[in-house]
Amino acid sequence: MGKKILEGTLKEITDPDRLPDHIQQLVIVDDRNSLTNYVHRFSDDRSVLVADYDDGKISARLDWHKDNTNELSRQHASHTATLQLRDSEEYSRWNKMEGDMHSQEEFALFIEENVADICDPDHTTMLEICRDLEATQDVSFKSGIRLENGDRTFVYEDDTKVKGDMTVPTEIRLLIPLYNGEEPVEVRAKFRFRPTAGGLQFGFRWHRVEYMRQATFKEMATLTADNTGRPVFYGRT
């Protein structure tokens, strides 16, 4: 028995809920200006910004869902540009030293190499302190006196019983950007001192720097919203 062949025509069946063709792209940018320029290129009335401080990201969700002023409909939400915040080179260098104690020589070399970041005390004063630190590595420190202005004077004695003193500040102020590509801000650091048999050890601790980083992050998100005309939401998805 032969096969029976059915004749007919093919008809395309469309899905009324099928989403239109779309861009599927995840872009990472390195600075705020690049994020702003990318948003200008691809955004429309669906686009929103999501700022997540804990994850260090400001993301532009370019094909996000339409708001309630339009007919509500789901969108692909697959085209995203994200600014992954990076610490500035200056902040990274100082943050690597923060919290630890260092020898006089190591600390003096670090200050000399990064003195341009310090706005108070002035550069001349800081370089003089560095020279004092380098010149008194082998002396015996006897006592420390806190002065009225908060600075501390250390009295020392060398092998020949010649006495001297060295004054160092208890706080320095830096003028550095906290994030890559951003403007410098003033950051405070508190000096720490530890007398040892081998001489003084020096270090510093940030003073409320995390609050400054949070404020800078919020300012960056707000500026991005202002420059792109897109709303910003703080949190995560």
Q: What's the N-to-C terminus distance? A: 63 Å
Radius of gyration: 30 Å
SS-derived structural category = alpha+beta
Global mean pLDDT = 81
**Strand segment count:** 13
Instruction: Give me the strand/helix succession.
Output: EHEEEHEHEHEEEEEEHE
Approximately what portion of the residues adopt beta-strand conformation? 25-35%
InterPro entries: DUF2303
Organism: Parasedimentitalea marina
Protein name: DUF2303 family protein
Set out the fold topology.
Elements: E1 25-29, H1 32-42, E2 48-52, E3 57-61, E4 79-84, H2 89-97, E5 102-103, H3 104-114, E6 118-120, H4 123-135, E7 140-146, E8 152-157, E9 163-168, E10 171-176, E11 185-196, E12 199-207, H5 209-228, E13 232-234
Parallel strand pairs: 1-4, 2-13
Antiparallel strand pairs: 2-3, 3-4, 5-12, 6-10, 7-8, 8-9, 10-11, 11-12
Helix pairs in contact: 1-5, 3-4
Which labels suit this protein?
DUF2303; 5-stranded mixed sheet; 237 residues; 32% strand; DUF2303 family protein
What does this structure look like?
This protein is α+β, with helices and mostly antiparallel strands and 237 residues long. It folds into two domains: 25-87 and 214-234; 89-207, no CATH class. It has helices at residues 32-42, 89-97, 104-114, 123-135, 209-228, and strands at 25-29, 48-52, 57-61, 79-84, 102-103, 118-120, 140-146, 152-157, 163-168, 171-176, 185-196, 199-207, 232-234. The strands form three sheets. It has a five-stranded mixed beta sheet, with helices on one face. A five-stranded antiparallel beta sheet has the order 5-12-11-10-6. Strands 7-8-9 form a three-stranded antiparallel beta sheet, with helices on one face. Helix 3 packs antiparallel against helix 4. The chain is elongated and about 110 Å long.
